[in-house]
Amino acid sequence: MTVKIFIKRKVQEKNSTELMLLLNKMRGLTLNQPGYISGETLKRIDRTDECMVISTWRSVDDWNNWVNNEKRSILQSEIDNLLGGETEYAIYE
Fold first, then answer.
1. Which domain holds residue 7?
2. Number of domains observed in the structure of the chain
3. What mean pLDDT do residues 70-79 have?
4. Per-residue pLDDT tens digits for 17-43
5. Phi/psi class of residue 79: alpha, beta or left (left: φ > 0; alpha: ψ in -120 to 50)?
6. Which CATH number belongs to the domain containing residue 88 in this structure?
């Protein structure tokens, strides 16, 4: 059964361009992962400091394999450092 991952991040305006660059790098890595189906990045209209990535995976196991990928972990650390906090994840089926 496919799953959707909702990834919410809050970013200061001064860091939004750098965040988008890091998210593009992340997307590039994600495209080669087994089980990855699609993803989109959205910027909230009424709260410009918030963005959401919605990622679709074949299974929770495929998502978990990606979460534990070393290259992803390094890039995610860069993102969290830029944001000054941890990224929020929610998994839905």
1. 3-92
2. 1
3. 96
4. 899 899 999 999 999 999 999 999 998
5. alpha
6. 3.30.70.100
